[in-house]
From TrEMBL:
The lineage of its organism: Eukaryota, Fungi, Dikarya, Basidiomycota, Agaricomycotina. Keywords: Oxidoreductase. Belongs to the short-chain dehydrogenases/reductases (SDR) family. GO terms for molecular function: oxidoreductase activity. This is Uncharacterized protein. Gene3D superfamilies: NAD(P)-binding Rossmann-like Domain.
Length: 281
């Protein structure tokens, strides 16, 4: 093993951005532990060189497992090459359902994977990184989730808490990339079908499925993400940023949210900013 190279643990590597990220990391000569819910889909290996395959290990990791099980899997990952330098929390799910139809059952299912599962994986690896006073943790969100994404809130908190230990946190916000899978291919989750929402489904579901028109190249996106972590290529000389927005659609969404926030601040600043006591009490 080349000690100068980094070791990555990447979750959610079956398809999509995770699959491309694994290939991008291996192309730089780094080592990867690729985590999947079930170890029965390894199509990525078919396009890898013998050298790349030698620097890739697969790990079965169900994000919905309890903390003890997740800790055991992370320990397995640490035992492969003796360390993990970069953790990428990419695994996640999105359930195509309205809040009323999906109800709390759909919300609990999604929170278990996207929130509690991510927390369990991250907290399981933190003692190792704190001991080394070194590491990078990446939270992969989405352009829409950025508006109200709970994992992003956790990521911001982690960034503040872990900075004294030399551990970097990066919040990746990818826009629309042309990949397989995604919410359009997920089953509709509903405990009840409400006819009032039929028109919503007619309008929204085709938009989610219209991937052929998406221009985002996932290989370019993940290559740039690796650049940012390693400080090379297009990221050379650039300052580390907690937020890393990827793609045109993501930039448009984030700018729109920031514009609305600044507009609200400006509209109310004259009456809402100065609310101090008139005198010391």
């Amino acid at each position: 093993m080349d000690g100068a190279k980094s070791v990555w643990l990447i979750t959610g590597t079956t398809s999509g951005l995770g699959k491309r990220l694994v290939a991008s990391v291996l192309a730089r000569g780094d080592y990867v532990v690729a985590a999947e819910r079930r170890l029965n889909r390894r199509s990525l290996e078919l396009s890898l060189s013998e050298d790349d395959r030698g620097r890739l290990r697969w790990l079965e990791l169900d994000m919905d497992s309890d903390l003890q099980t997740v800790q055991g899997r992370v320990d397995e990952a640490l035992g492969v090459w003796g360390r993990i330098d970069v953790l990428v929390n990419n695994a996640g799910s999105a359930l195509p359902s309205t809040l009323e139809e999906g109800g709390s059952a759909a919300a609990i299912e999604q929170f278990q994977t996207n929130v509690f599962g991510t927390l369990n994986v991250t907290n399981s690896i933190l003692p190792h990184m704190r001991q080394r006073r070194f590491g990078t943790i990446i939270f992969v969100g989405s352009r829409m989730g950025w508006k109200c994404d709970i994992p992003v809130t956790f990521a911001e908190t982690y960034a503040a808490e872990l900075r004294p230990f030399g551990i970097r946190v990066l919040i990746a916000i990818p826009g629309e990339f042309r990949v397989e899978g995604g919410i359009a291919n997920s089953p509709c989750v509903s405990r009840q079908d409400i006819r009032d929402y039929d028109q919503v489904r007619v309008r929204v579901l085709p938009e989610l499925a219209a991937k052929a028109e998406v221009r985002g190249d996932p290989v370019k996106g993940m290559s740039l993400l690796v650049d940012a972590v390693k400080g090379e290529g297009k990221a050379q000389g650039k300052e580390w940023a907690d937020y890393f927005v990827l793609g045109r659609t993501a930039y448009a969404t984030v700018r729109e949210k920031c514009w609305h926030l600044l507009k609200s601040l400006d509209a109310w600043q004259d009456v809402a900013e100065d609310l101090d006591f008139d005198h010391d009490e």
